[in-house]
Amino acid sequence: MTIAVCPGSFDPVTSGHIDVIERCAHLFEQVHVVVAVNAAKRPMFTETQRVEMIREVLAEDGFPDIVVTSTEGLITDYCAKVGAQVIVKGLRQNGDYEAELGMALVNKQIGDVETMFLPANPLKEHISSSIVKDVARHGGDVTGLVPGYVAPLLIEALRSEKR
């Protein structure tokens, strides 16, 4: 069985993330979406909230069998634990390749795990979690940028941030 891992911070999960994850589900027998916990970052949503958001959106979209979890360690350690042969990363046209290539080479060296780059859907390649949060912070409409389930959670998180 070919197992793929789609790691990311997913803070919050965007329509672009979901597109890449669902496309992976058509390419691999099993897909693990892994919320990578980075102690150096201060996410808007907790690890548990991010995992639950992704699970909910994927179930709504008809992909309930994708494994969604989190890890604090190296993604290569997670891959070894579940027997994953490949890490899948979505690439946008904003310099993602340069950043992701270095990580891919390190992951191959330390964990013997290949990385597959999946080009972003051209209709969604402009979407990032940072842009989504910025638009929402300034009162902009995030419809289409995040799944419908995520939008009200994002608005509520921003309200709490202002308090």
TrEMBL record:
Keywords: ATP-binding, Coenzyme A biosynthesis, Cytoplasm, Magnesium, Nucleotide-binding, Nucleotidyltransferase, Transferase
Pathway stated in the Swiss-Prot or TrEMBL entry: Cofactor biosynthesis; coenzyme A biosynthesis; CoA from (R)-pantothenate: step 4/5
Chief location category: cytoplasm
Coiled coil: none
Cofactor(s), by name: Mg(2+)
Family classification: Belongs to the bacterial CoaD family.
Name of the featured protein: Phosphopantetheine adenylyltransferase
Source species of the chain: Bifidobacterium saimiriisciurei
